[in-house]
Design brief:
By secondary structure, the protein is an alpha/beta fold. The chain has helices at residues 3-7, 24-39, 49-54, 57-65, 78-86, 96-103, 117-141; strands spanning 13-17, 44-47, 68-72, 92-95. It has one domain (3-141): Rossmann fold, CATH 3.40.50.
């Protein structure tokens, strides 16, 4: 890492959502990421997982120098494993399947195209958890006197 970057503190957190287009959980993560960025536009950015995994230097370098939150939609964990492999360990990982279980929510196959009520409820919960992690991450890296 260049010396000047060690003295800078990040002001943005990258959100890396599952890109699984064949599973409803992928749709949930992408909607949740959008909800977070709409709520916290000054402190978050959505990163493109396919570009990231394809070797895009801009995406990978962002994740090397800024904190990231990965939203994993299934057991493959493409978002978090890819981030760790090509950049750095994510600052946080949110597992949609785990949250679904906690909320006792089931998704339908048609939720891939358009989320129903359960899917939107889940997306909002994932967005809330992600926004909370963004706040925690940015508070942790800010000097105590701010």
């Amino acid at each position: 890492m260049p010396d000047f970057l060690e003295t800078m503190r990040p002001t943005k957190v990258g959100i890396i959502a599952c890109s699984g287009e064949a599973i409803p959980e992928g749709t949930v993560t992408r909607i949740a990421a959008r909800l977070v960025v709409e709520e916290l536009p000054e402190s978050t950015v959505i990163m493109c997982l396919p570009l990231f995994l394809a070797g895009d230097e801009g995406e990978q370098n962002f994740a090397k120098f800024f904190p990231t939150i990965c939203l994993d939609g299934c057991e493959k964990r493409c978002s978090s494993l890819g981030t760790e492999k090509y950049s750095d360990k994510p600052s946080a990982v949110i597992d949609v399947k785990k949250v679904m279980k906690e909320m006792d929510i089931k998704l339908n196959p048609e939720d891939v195209v358009e989320l129903g009520n359960n899917g939107m409820k889940l997306a909002r919960r994932i967005a809330e958890l992600t926004a909370k992690k963004v706040d925690e991450i940015l508070l942790d890296i800010r000097p105590k006197d701010e």
